[in-house]
Structures are given as C-alpha cells and as structure tokens.
Predict the structure.
Amino acid sequence: MKTKKIIALLGASLAWTTAGYAQETVKIGVILPYSGPFADAANQLQAGIDLYIAKHGDTVAGKKIELIKKDTGGPAADVAQRMAQELVVRDGADIIAGFALTPEALGAAPVAEEAQKLMVVMNAATSMVTEQSEYIVRTSVTIPQVNYALGKWAFEDGGVTQAYTLVSDYGPGHDAEKSFSAGFTEAGGKILGSDRTPVANPDFSAFVQRVKDANPEAVYIFVPGGAQPAAIGKALVDRGLAPPATKILAQGELTHPEALASMGETARGIITTFHYTLERDDPLNKEYVEGYTAANNGREPDLFSIGGYDGMHLIYEALKKTNGDTSGDALIAAAKGMSWQSPRGPMSIDPETRDVVQTVYIREVQEVDGKLQNVIIHEIPDVKDPLH
Amino acid sequence: MNQAMSANANVDTARQWLKRQSRWSPFEIVFWLALLLPFFLFPTYLPLASQIAIAALFALSVDLILGYAGIITLGHAMFFGLGAYAAALLAKAGWSEPLTGLLFAGVFAGLIGFITSFMIVRVQHLALLMITLGLGVLTLELANAMSWLTGGTDGLRVPRTWPIFNYFRFDLWGYTSYGYTLAVLFICFLLSRLLVNSSFGLALRGIRENVKRMPAIGSDHHRHLQKIYTISAAMAGLAGALLAQTTSTVALDVLSFTRSADVIVMLVLGGTGRLYGAIVGAIIFLVARDQLAGINPQYWYFWIGLLLMVVVLFMPKGILGFLSRLAGRRDND
C-alpha cells in the first residue's frame, strides 16, 4: 500500500517536472523538402524562418523557441504525414509548420486535426489546403488569389478584351488557367483559346505558333521556374509575340530576379501578378532584403522566404497573445483576424477561412538604372482567395 | 525399368527438397516475433514501422518477379500506385471499410498486371527494362492528366478509414496501422513462401536460370511468367492500398520512378531471390533513411549511396546472402 503511494507520488512529481520543462520551450516542427528537386525552395523558406528568429530573438512570452526539421524529399504526402505524426508523438512538437508543396500539407492535415495542433502553411498554394482542418493557417499566397485579380485587372485597367492562355499541364497550371480565365471573363473579357504544355522539357514553338494564329491581344502564361521562363520568352519573341504589340501576362515566378537574368531582353514589358516584389520601395522591405542578403551570401529573398518569415511572425504574435499557451485552440483563435505590416506590404488572416488576405501587386518588367526589374504599376488591396 | 526407377528417385528428392525448404527454422520464428517488438519497445516509432511493413510488402512483390522469375522491372510503382488510387477512390466514393478496400485494390492492380503481362513475357533484358519503365512513366502521366479523378500534383485527401472489424480505430500513435500492415505483410509472406517452395516456384527458378531450356522440358514458361507477374502486381497493389488507407492521402508520388527505383535498392541491400531479403532490405533502407535524414535533412542520400556501393562490392548477394555465407549455410536457392 505504502509503496503504491510512493510510486504514485513519484509519477505525479515526474509528470509535474516534465510539464514544468515543457513550459520552458515551444517546439516547432518544420516539415519541408530539404532534399530532392525542391531542396532550393526549402532552403529559401528555412532562411526566411532563420532570419525572423535572428531578428526577433528566440524567446517569446518567456519561452524558448526550438525548431525540429524534418525532410520529406519531395511532394510525398505519406512521408509528410509520418513526419507530422512523429513530431507530435515522439518529439512533442507544439506547432507544425513549413509545407512547401501541397501534398505535404494534405498529408500532415489529418495529424494537425487529430492532435489539435496549430499548423502554419508557409508556402503550399492550392486553395483547398486551409479547408482540410480548423487548425490550419496560411501565410503565403494562393494561386487563385493573384491570378483571379490579374484577370480582372487585365480587362478593367489593362485594356485587354480578348486573350489566349498557355499553361503547364499540371495541378498549379490548371488552377492558374482556371482562376485567370474566371477573373477575366467575369469582368467581360473573352478567352480565344487555351492550351496546355507538357511539364517536363516542352518545345514551346508549336504552341506559340497556335497562339499567334489566334492573334490575341494578350497571352497569359504559367510555367514552372527553372529553365522554362527563358525558353518560353525566347519562343514568344521568335514568333513576334512581344509587348507592346501583344501583352504577356503571367504569375510572378516568371520574372523573379534569377529568371530575369536568364531571359534578358525578351523579358521587357512582361506583366506579372504577385504578392511579393523584391524591389518594392518600402523601408520594411529594404531592411528585410538587406538582412536576408547579408545572412545568405548575397542570395536575395523570394516568395518562399517571405512565406517562412511571415509564418514565424504569425507564430510569435499568436504566442504573445496567448501568453505562451501552445494549445491548438488558443493559438488558432489568436491567429484568426490577425493583421500586420510585412515586408510584402499589409496582410491579415481571414477569421473565417484562416487564409491569407493581402495586397496583390501588378508589375511590369521595365529598365531601371540600366537593369531590367519588376516595377509595380498597380496595387489591389485586401484580396481574398476567390474560391473559398 | 532402371530408368523409370531413377526418374522416380529424382521426383522424390525434388519433393524432399521442397519439403525441407518449407520447414520453419527457429531463426524465422525469432525474426517474426522480433517484428512485434516495436509495439513495446519503440511505440513512438510505429508510424515508421508501418511504412517499413508497407515497403517490405512492396519489395516482396518485386522479389517474386525479380528474384525468383528473373523479370527485371523499373516500373513496379505502377501497380503500387494503382492499388493506392483504387483504395483511395473507393473510400472517396463512400466505402472506407479497410479489408474490402484492400481486396478491391489488390484485384484491380492484379487485373492490370494480368493485361500488361502479355507484353512483359514477350521481351527480356534491356527491352524488359524499357517496357516496364515506359509503362510506369505512362501511368504516372495518365494520373497527372486525369487530375479531376486523381487530384493531380496536389494529391488526394481520402476520408478516414473505418475501424478494422468495426473495432480497431486508426489512432495517432499508429498501433492499429502497424498491426494492420504487419498482419497483411505476414499473410502475403506466407503465401509467397508456399508459392516459391512449390513446383511452380521451381519452374520459375528454372526460367530465371535458362529461359530457352524450360520449353524444351515441356514447361509453358509464358504461362508461368504471366501467373507470377499477375500475383506480384496484385501484391504491390495491396501495399499501395495499405499506404492510402493508413495515411488517408495519396499523391502522384506513389507512381513515381523514385519509388520503383528505391524498391530495387532495398532488394539489392537485403538480397534478391530470398523472401527475407525484401523485408530486411526495407528495414535497413527506411531506418537508415530516417536516421540519416534526422542527422542531416539535406544530404542523407549520399550515405544511402555509399551503403549501396559497399553492399554491392563486398556482399554481391545482399546482406542476407553475406550473413548466410558467414554462417556457413547453403544458399536457399
């Protein structure tokens, strides 16, 4: 009887001490494709996270922030789910974050739901991601958000009445095509034709010829980054499809700084839509870019970096609001409706959908100081994802 | 008279040999009991353990055709993926009962396996490699193109699988998942064991050793190969379905070339042509991956490559082949 009591006491004190210890740290599990074809995106996102921690310290509401990194190796839903499970049951993570790719987020969502943990999606850009669990919040962008806005703008302010769409034949390409077309036709524009190019190693010349035959005022394109922006830029110019005669519309990755360098002159005049513009003239952005390049051997931040940076901001602010309470319910309540000034501009979290609401920028590639760069020509404030 | 007697004697020894092969050794019993240890010793590693069991089942299916029948394949993820999508789509249609879902996926993958087997048995060596690779890539592209059905690059969220026997709920810790996957692995292993230690299994080995000779002794090698290919495809489909059911998600990566290649790596590590080689290979590959990726999430594949080179150079018959040589035991085949 006595021994039983002692054991119970020991157990209780042990439980108490571990609870006491847990109060000292907040463990954030970061699930990203650190290896494989998307490793570069993961590294940029991680650099955004690291920069935020370096700037704001690793203690929030009296608790120390501890990161646990897990590699998925690519768009593997099953691996992401196992990582999330292990983070929760083995490592005792309080928050799960990261997710460069949609399948990763879909894989981890059931774990966040069951374990009732805050899940911060820092990139994955398909609309439906935040609908998978009440505990998911997103700090990046959605493809419909920027492309629907671009379609609407093209008809209302861009002076385009009919257009042709040319997208890569995979999920994000399909989403982009659908949302641009929706924004454009709902405003009153007409889509002359839609084509889809293979995802891997496409030869654009035949597709571009078809676009030329349709003789549109503008062509909307969506291709994955890497070698394709330069290839499609060249194919368009070769067929004489170039601004100002034919407007070229696209999502921001097409003309991000590294792509611009490889596209050269062919990029001039391309109009893109995005939530983050490296060159945006703003003190907060300047400070962010300077800090980032200094910490990363001169590498400039991109869309992944800003998603990670703002994701950490959300986690920090939510922890401050809850006074260090890490329960999923408290954190998600704190995150709903939160709004702040980010290097990308003003942004907030929709209290209903837990998705990001932000300014969408329409940019045109122009020459500034002898160098081609994205210049903001229009701003659309407080854009929500149109699909929720 | 004399000849007939010696022929009879030959049949007897073959039978005895098969009988000897199918006897359970104490090693095997210990091995299977050891697979229960994660429940008690490493309960926080159960999600990994169930993925290992799934990978082992997939590797087992490839071992049946590669190790026993000599069909080299670089596209077996095709059947794994078909099984995963079959189970997932059935669940999406409103039927999430695990066992019938599993059966449905196995039958579906087996059916596709049977259809493609007509093509497979006509070619050998490099051509076989190219055909299996091509079929795998085609299936992947087809799934990508049919994104309205498969979810495309984004993947598919599947409704949660119903409890097994309406009792064992799929829990966060993975107790049910591991129990379920291990049970299916064990049953498939028993079937494979019966298969390879039967006269059919012997015929397959004959085909592996010399394709031209088998017809000469009156063995219909096309029919044999078709049979084992169909069985193997169905088994790979079961593995895929297990993955879809235990993780409630499917993405295009179930069909990827990497999955087809990884399973070959597992087999080479463990040792081809041995049923246990598939299981040991899957354990080594995934545990090494988990540990190495934990140490360095960026460059873990380097160490896998190194391990693979060491094994291929110094243990050409895989880790199991090496161990059995160390133990001085005769090779199983």
In short: Chain B has 16 helices and two strands.
